[in-house]
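Journal club prep — side note

Before the paper discussion, L.F. wants everyone to see what a predicted structure for a comparable chain looks like in token form. Sequence:
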Amino acid sequence: MLLEGSSVPAQPPAKLAWLSLGLFIVAFLVGLFLGNFLAFVAALPLTDMSLATLMEAVANPVGQARFRVAILVLQGVAALCTFLLFPLWFARTLDPDHGAKAQFWASLKQGDRAVNWLAVLLLVLVAMPFSAALVEWNEGVKLPAALAAWEKQLKASEEHLRQLTLFLTDFAHPGEFLLGFLVVALVAGVGEELTFRGILQPKFQKVLGGNPHLAIWLTAFLFSAFHFQFYGLVPRLLLGALFGYLYHWRGSLWLPMLAHVVNNGFTITMLYLHKRGLVAVDINDTAQVPWGLALASALLTAAGLWWLARQPKSELSSQVAAPLP
């Protein structure tokens, strides 16, 4: 069978879905490589280092505060290219699945009622005590004795990532904080939602026979695993699922983007304010969260999700969020 006006044979839906997913994975890996290359090119003029020395500093930046701006710029450019520019380019030019293209761009045109934007904002803030309790629980997970060597490696990697996060968010002045907010909250929040919820989740839904729930949880697992933090896997998995259901229910990418930006932005803002002595709460100290507060947070989060799921959709939103063939 030929497409009208074309000499290219039409692909069966299942084959087209797998082809589209495979091409995106290849494009993403290329974007990841080129994005990191461009990031080093952008950051190098901000230092007096050679390329090799800068790569070592990125791998072990703790104690090199004078290079924090360069490393933040590097991370920002890498994330901008990998999660935002290359996925947009793929969705515009390379994706052979025209239905997926239409869904992606429709989800960026689709807005929502102001009350739902406010509900998502409050939902993310309300969910934070429950998320912090999950982080504390996940950090206490013990692996079987047979996996003791692997557990030791995981803990060492986790400590390294913790130190890296503390270094990058130890802003020396408001300018560094604004740069950090741009990189960690805006670029990461918007870009990761474009990639994971905007492109991967609908593609997984197609290859999984149209099951939105399997697609949401698979995408959430990959989203969590991509951060390479075993002891934060479960809370980030649930956070990814929350973003996924927001997209599925509302049909707009802007709501999960808002949720992601608020989650990241609130965290680094609280870290900055705590360092400056303006707030007493150290958001990194998950042991500060009483389990009663965590339970109330979980119940309110569930109620908020239930309410959002029941809100009426606009005509375009209904089309975007409808199960895929």
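L.F.'s comment for the group: Residues 13-321 form one domain. Keep this in mind when we get to the figures.
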